[in-house]
Amino acid sequence: MKDFLKVAVRNVGRNRRRSFITIVTIFLGVLVVSGIRGLLNGFQGEIRSSLTRKIHGDLQIHKKGYQDAVDNDPYKILIPDVAALEKEIQIPELIATAPRLRVFGLLNHQKSQKTTPVMIVGIDSKRELAVCPRLEQAVQAGTVLDSSQEIRSEAIEDDELTEAPPIGTTLSEDAPKAQGQNGIMLTPSLVRGMGAEIGDELVVLIQDKNNMQQAVVVHLVGVVDYAMPTAASKIAWMDFTTLRRAAGLTEGATELALRTQEGADVNEIRDRLTRALDPSLVVETWEELGGFFKDVMGLQNLVFSVILTIVFTIVISGIVNTSLMTVMERTREIGTLMALGYRRRQIMSLFLIEFAAIGVAGGIAGLTAATILLGLLGKKGIIFALPGQTTPTIIYPYATVFFLVSVLGLAIFAALLAGIVPAYRASRMRPVDALRAN
Amino acid sequence: MKSLFLLLQVCTQVWAADPTAIVKKIESALAPPTSKFSYAFTNHRTDGTTVEYEVSFQMKDPDHSHGYFIKPEREKGREVLRLENDLWTYMPNVGKSVHIADRDSFAGGDFSNADILRVDWTSKYSVTLLKDLTNQAIYELKAKAKDATYAKMRLWVDKKSGMPVQQKFYDSQGTLLKRLSYGEVKKFGKTERPSYLLMENVITKQKSELRVQSMESPADVKDSRFRVDNLGK
Prior knowledge:
The complex is a heterodimer of chains A (438) and B (233). Chain A has 438 residues and is an alpha+beta fold. In chain A, 51% of the residues lie in helices and 18% in strands. Chain A has helices at 2-14, 16-55, 66-69, 82-88, 125-131, 135-138, 188-194, 240-246, 266-276, 286-289, 291-329, 331-339, 344-380, 401-427, 431-436, and strands spanning 59-63, 94-109, 114-123, 139-142, 182-186, 201-207, 213-224, 235-239, 255-260, 281-285, 382-384, 393-395. A six-stranded mixed beta barrel of chain A has the order 2-3-8-5-7-6. A two-stranded antiparallel ribbon of chain A has the order 11-12. In chain A, a hairpin with a 4-residue loop joins strand 2 and strand 3. Chain B is 16% helix and 47% strand. In chain B, strands 6-5-4-3-2-1-13-12-11-10-9-8-7 form a 13-stranded antiparallel β-sheet. The radius of gyration of chain B is 19 Å and the shape is globular. Chain B starts with a helix and ends in a 17-residue tail after the last strand. Classes of the chains: A alpha+beta (438), B alpha+beta (233). Chain A binds chain B through residues 108, 110, 113, 115, 153, 155-158, 161-165, 167-169, 171, 175-178, 203, 205, 207-208, 210-217, 246, 248, and chain B through 46, 101-103, 130-131, 133-136, 138, 143, 146-151, 154, 156, 165-166, 168-177, 179, 181-183, 196, 198, 200, 202-206.
């Protein structure tokens, strides 16, 4: 066997140019496939990270009917006792939870007097950052809203209990307002549309749970850009408790976002929580919440499979071609080996080991190059902007060890597969004919 | 006889001082049951532009009212209908009726639909006297019904004429949302009421004017007018 290996490897070096071309073909195939996978991993990793660490969290718990009612009647789908729910879901994988309240309302910019409809999301900044730490990175200007700095005003007493002024008297500029110090963060399109600047005064107008108009005076503290092509462009984030109070609620949230340990199986956790919780509650993973991106990633993986198939078909075709030529050129050698007593399966093995050696050489070379390339790109990152993205994203390509080992295995397998027919033909030759060949 | 006269006088004073009764009296002056009005609206936008509307109204009772847009030309034929707690608007360009809310703006101005189409505050707000001043009294109207449009209103009433002078609308935090000023008291038939209303939005700094061009109180108005399927006919 040792001799077989020696002979096989020596044969690889006998026709250096041909072996070099075959090895380069495998090298390029492995490099291209690993590179594309690495880029996709980086892209998909960024999507996952953005969805889980900026927007949704790993999982969310809602009331049934959340998706249909959240824009129209959020008070219908309130989780009434969030604290009790949080106690109920104490599982080992859970790192943090953050309640949120979504209410549709109007936002008025006092300086420009522009009013626009917005989705207002109430967040507790500390808890939100524990679930979505990358929210901080999404702040383009200003800072993250700080719930601990919120000063929620009590109901004010209007001291204008004097006789009404004559009609037409200008309404006092310092008309009574609840003077809490409430912060708000807005999306870039809202800020641009209203011409707002950090520190500007805005008024949030919402209908409370009884449909009464409520106003909250806020100041712009930050501009948040999710940098995701499908992210809603009209979102305002304000303090959870302030919004909840304005909505006339003392309890409740429209959603509870969860962060789990890195690498935890969110689908398994979803199933476990679904079984344990009240049937009126729905547990959804980040993939289900970001359905569009799930489809995008599925499509990317499908395209990658097609590319993988094409690349390896080309590689196999190249190897088959050179292998057949190798066998033809060495017909007399095969005849001599057979005349010396080599058996047919030994002849076949000799050629297969030779082709496998070429596969190993090309595969290792390709993997080495891919590892270096992905290592460099993974460290530096690639600036990437999808259509519709306001801020480019930096993606960090990477490939898993399992994938790289699988590609090496695939390269050797492809080389062997390509060599089976030529090796078989070599083994089926008649010694007399082979020795007579020119 | 003297004591009976005194008792009658005390009773009269008690009635006169009943805040709910005073506000009810204002309601019936502003929107008498079975009445027909013609209103002219001018909405002043913050960019300096104005939009003018002319709308004729019919009211059977606080739960049944109907408005028909006469001007401008592009809005002619638009209708609004209140049927108890439901509000509908009919858009002639598409021939469809759409359900709307009390809190929505009336004709894009600063009056809400509830401000225009339902003057029955006493059914949704509890009334108390907040301050008795020399010439005016301030009444506070706090929401008692869940579907009240505002958390709180304050109404300034001229003690001599019993006419409203000013009204302020607040949210539950006490933030002033809007101010309505009443002026130019006129007599329409037997009913005396302010004929000019100026609504100022404290938040958006916009204002809308309403002028009552005519008001009459016929014995009855047609029931058929107050049906959704009759909108546009």
